[in-house]
Write a structure and sequence with these properties.
This protein has 297 residues and is of the alpha/beta class. It folds into three domains: 79 residues, Arc Repressor Mutant, subunit A (Orthogonal Bundle); 89 residues, Periplasmic binding protein-like II (D-Maltodextrin-Binding Protein, domain 2, 3-Layer(aba) Sandwich); 102 residues, D-Maltodextrin-Binding Protein, domain 2 (3-Layer(aba) Sandwich), CATH 3.40.190.290. It has twelve helices and 13 strands. Strand 3, helix 5 and strand 4 form a beta-alpha-beta unit. Helix 1 crosses helix 2. The N and C termini lie far apart (51 Å).
């Protein structure tokens, strides 16, 4: 069984793109060459690695096992290069980091700016994902560090406290629900679902979570308009156009007059956690970033 790094990287690209053709392009290989490499791996293992269909190709059970090992091996090679790069000019390395919406907008900008200022030869590949997707990616070795909500199952990952991040319901002081609540400071999410909401644009992980929570209650989350950023949402809510779910930090930071009500649902009283697969196995520069994130404000 002789797989080289090109074979492994090709298989990762095919699995992630769902297509041998796309995987070949990402690996800078001709399609016949890529197909031959996949057949060679399957013949060496005497087991099919891909299930081919009209819509593309996806790993079989054996293929998923290979994918996990391929990611581990390629990551180890990347770590080796990054560790050695500190002896040469240029970047020392790159950290792949996945975070939920609240972390990426409310807490990380200042923390990462300070860290990068003192680590000029390091780069951070930062992406927004749903917390459960982050857990899977970190467990699979597709990301070094994740920041997730404590509401999701962390599986076997190592986790560390990051920030408290409670969610609140916000509305204009003159909104009908505000008048209905009177002096009440706490309510259940289901009570708010009778009204229209202002949401976040795009495939926001934060927005998707609110929709899923409504679905679990057997209700529909009606979003009148989607805007980019918590600040824009706050302004629209202040106009009386609808309600919104916001992190308490974002709601307090805004200059608009808003009525904030705590949600009694367990999922709203959340905390953010840093997660890694194995702290000891992280490259040195990634461990430095982890240590910096773990420090309180």
């Amino acid at each position: 069984m002789r797989f080289d790094l090109t074979d492994l990287q090709l298989f990762i690209h095919i699995a992630e793109s769902g297509s041998i053709t796309a995987g070949a392009e990402l690996s800078h290989l001709a399609l016949p060459s890529a197909s031959a490499r996949v057949r060679g791996m399957e013949e060496a293992l005497s087991v099919p690695l891909l299930q081919r269909g009209r819509r593309g190709a996806e790993p079989t059970e054996a293929g998923r096992t290979l994918l996990q090992h391929a990611r581990t091996i390629t990551r180890q090679v990347e770590n080796m290069h990054a560790e050695l790069a500190q002896f040469a000019a240029g970047l020392k390395g790159q950290v792949r980091m996945l975070c939920n919406t609240s972390a990426i907008t409310e807490f990380l900008p200042d923390a990462l700016a300070a860290f990068l200022k003192t680590h000029p030869r390091l780069s951070i590949n930062l992406e927004e994902r749903m917390s459960r997707e982050i857990v899977q990616a970190v467990a699979d070795g597709a990301a070094d560090i994740g920041i997730i909500s404590d509401a999701v199952d962390r599986a076997t990952l190592q986790t560390f406290p990051f920030r408290d991040d409670p969610l609140v319901l916000v509305m204009a002081p003159g909104h009908p629900l505000a008048r209905q609540l009177g002096n009440q400071r706490r309510m259940a999410f289901v009570q708010a679902l009778e009204h229209d909401f202002i949401g976040l644009a795009g495939d926001s992980a934060f927005q998707q979570n609110a929709i899923e929570q409504a679905t679990r209650l057997g209700r529909r989350f009606h979003c009148k308009i989607r805007l980019r950023g918590f600040e824009a949402v706050s302004r629209m809510v202040a106009s009386g156009a609808g309600l919104a779910i916001l992190p308490a930090t974002a709601a307090r930071r805004g200059s608009e007059p808003l009525r904030m009500v705590k949600l009694s649902d367990d999922w709203a009283d959340r905390k953010l956690l840093i997660c890694v697969r194995d702290e000891a196995a992280l490259p040195g520069y990634a461990r430095e970033l982890l240590a910096a994130l773990r420090r309180p404000d």
